[in-house]
Design brief:
single chain, alpha+beta, four-stranded antiparallel sheet
Length: 148
Amino acid sequence: MKIRIRFRKYGVMKFIGHLDVMRYFQKAMRRAHIDICYSEGFSPHQIMSFAAPLGVGITSDGEYMDIEVHTSASTEESLRALNGVMVEGVECTEATVQDGTYAIQRPFLIVTKDGAQLSDAAQAFLDYAMSGDVAELIVKAGAVPPAK
């Protein structure tokens, strides 16, 4: 079974790099006795993948990783077990089964330089992205529309 876990990284843990966070979660899975699947072959490793890496020095309340497990306890029990072995600065906040009923959204940022002239195509896209039509679609999808 595949599980998507949402976690937050804050405090002094913001200075820990992505590869170290990956190693940290591998140890946390073992300590929490999560029945995680391992790859096959000469050098088996835990089957887990992370979303885009977070830069060093940046905190986040919405980081995601996917794991594959043989068996699973309830979501509350698994979160309690994982958070029980975590250090201050990393906390699992949500776990959902990958069955298509969750909506994963990351912020979509449009950054423009004050006073800079946009190309016609970029201006057309920006106008469309900020239009009421797109805002309605975003609200129907259960997300927050962009601020103007």
